[in-house]
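User: Assemble these into one structure.

Assistant: Restating your components, then the assembled model:
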Amino acid sequence: MSPLSAYLLLSSFLFAIGLAGALTRRNAILVLIGIELMLNAANLNFIAFWRFGSHTGNQVTGIIFVIFSIAVAAAEAAVGLALIIAIYRHYKSTDVEDIKTLKG
Amino acid sequence: MTLILQWLWLIPALPLIAAFLSALAPQPCRRFSATIAIGSMIGSLSLACCAFASTLKHSERLVRNFEWFRFGDQSLQLGWVLDPLTAVMLVMVCFVGLLIFIYSVGYMAHDENFTRFFCFLSLFAAAMLGVVIANSLLLLFISWELVGLASYLLIGFWYHKPSAAAAAKKAFITTRVGDLGFLLGMLWLYSQSGTLLFYNHGHGCMEADALSKMVAQTTSLGLAVSTGISLLIFCGAVGKSGQVPLHVWLPDAMEGPTPVSALIHAATMVAAGVFLVARVYPLMSAHAAGVTVSSALQVVTWTGVITALFAATIAVAQTDIKRILAYSTVSQLGFMMVGLGVGGVAVGMFHLITHAFFKALLFMGAGSVIHGCHEEQDIRRMGGLRKIMPVTFTTYAVGMLALSGFPLLFSGFWSKDEILHSAHRWHISHWPFYLMLCAAFLTAFYMTRQVFYVFFGNCRLKLGQTTSSEQRTVDHGGTVVVEHPHHELPSEPHESPAVMTLPLVVLAVFAIVLGFVGTPAWPWFQSFLEHEHLRFNGAALTEAATLKTMLISSVIALGGIALGWLLYGKRPCQRPGDIDVLERGQPEIFTLLRNKYYVDEAYEWAFVRFNAWWARTCDLLDTWVWNGLVQLCAYVFVGIAWVNKFLDENAINRGFDEGCARLTQGGGLMSRLQNGSLQGYLRVIGIALAVLALALMWGCKQ
């Protein structure tokens, strides 16, 4: 097994864990954590492809990509947490099952 | 001159405005409505006097026509005319009307519908003045019908009395029968002459061109067209002037208030018929070259003769003070018609004018008597009022002598003498002359009878018990105008207030002096109406023929009065229940006369019953045939509607409802997907991603 496949396997494993967490947990914060896990699985993919992939010279495209992604994730986490706080203030709950007003 | 012609329309317009204002005035404005009514009459009277003065100076006929509307190339013209006939009538109507208005203030003082009464009176006067000034048969007809309407309203003024309501209807319908003829005559005249204007500078229908055209043509019956038209128009006059056979409404019209009786029977409505004949006299008298008297005038004469005698005989046997006067009016109208027929416009109109004054006097005197005797109208229950009501007695006696034709002093003598004189000279037949003498004799007789019954003998008035046919609020003592459910027991018969006796005195003066404007020696009135040169001719008075008729008519009048005195004056009636002297002698004839020759009953039997039968038949047809058809249609439509409703409810509505329910259901199902659960959405995304990935992988493998 080549190192790339191992990394890809790891990252898909991580993604699956994140997806399962986002789908099953009822606490909004844990759902957010699951989403972060999936994001990080994607970041791992970027690094793995940059390290073992076929590319020329010493370009840092993959790392820059990942740094951007992490920055965006941080911002996203901040926004997400702020939303959760706002929801909590309103509903006195962070349970996603309770927040169902967005239905048709 | 032209100024008064220009403003002639104001004469009828003023009372009309007063009528409008009274109609708008609220019920308690008594003073206001009486003031404007009397004020408008004073205005009209002064204008009428101006008109009269201007015709005195220039007696030629003045007309003022204007176009009313135009249809096709024809136009309908209305207008008014100022000639001696109009001027005389205007002054008479305004003057007598004014006195009656003043009298009504006293007579109707306690009536709660005082304002309405003056509104109707003004309307009546306006309509009558419209008849007088009209220069178009159409305008005359319009005013004529307004007169009919106003008389209907006034006769039925106390409409809560069934007899008054019935009398009003009777008057309206009976005159309408005559007016049908009038209308037909008018249409025929229009089709023949193309204009309804009387005088229009040579183009009017009463002027030579049109007349000669109408005389030349004959109808299929051999009558000249002019005669046919005249007879039809005369039908209207018969209805309005109460000539036989349409006289039946006039005595019944006594149900109205007494001033109305005076207004209708003296000055206006009944005079309208005579005036109409006088107005269309050129048409009436138009005849072909070989004939001396037109057949229309012969019909007028004979109708008048029959009416005069017929009504005079009925008047002999009546006991109601107003009914006697009513039949006497019918009889005198017959005299006027005879005057028109045998002597021309001046003779008939002279009697009309003098009669207007003394008959208004008699009616108002009768009203005063009725008022003083607390609504008693039966002459058998009166008596001895000579001392209690001196003013009324004196004036009434003047009126009675004038009507009887007491020689030399009173106006009625001169005007009646004129008619008799003309009848004597009539060469068609001498019968009218003899029959008129009989009528004149009867007139003197029944008036004497009435006066002796009412004013002489002992007082037979049963106090405290009124058989009133005029049921009104009676409150003679004070000025209180409150309606008492049971009016006070009357105390004593009393003289009427000055507002009522003053017009009587004025009229009495006129009843005497008016005769002197038309004596054979100084025939001012006749020459004024006929544009002849006037000269004093004292010899005419002593001419053999004139003297002979004057003597005969004097003897007749005095004979009538003497017979009346013999039968009723010498031994006056003692108790109300006493049998009449004539009844003792000839009970059958007297009963026949008392029942007015059973004319009402005959009409009842012939026309009213037929009419009722026809109405019932129509009602049956209506109920069963026409209503059945309508009902059938209705049922068919109801059936169709029912089917429609069934289809609507069961097919269309239910289908629609079902469809809607399904749609709602579908919507519900769809909305279940949008359940708002965040993780549900995420799950779908996840599954979709997985499916996408699998599809891509499977695709790459290919």
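The helical segments of chain A are 3-24, 28-52, 61-91.
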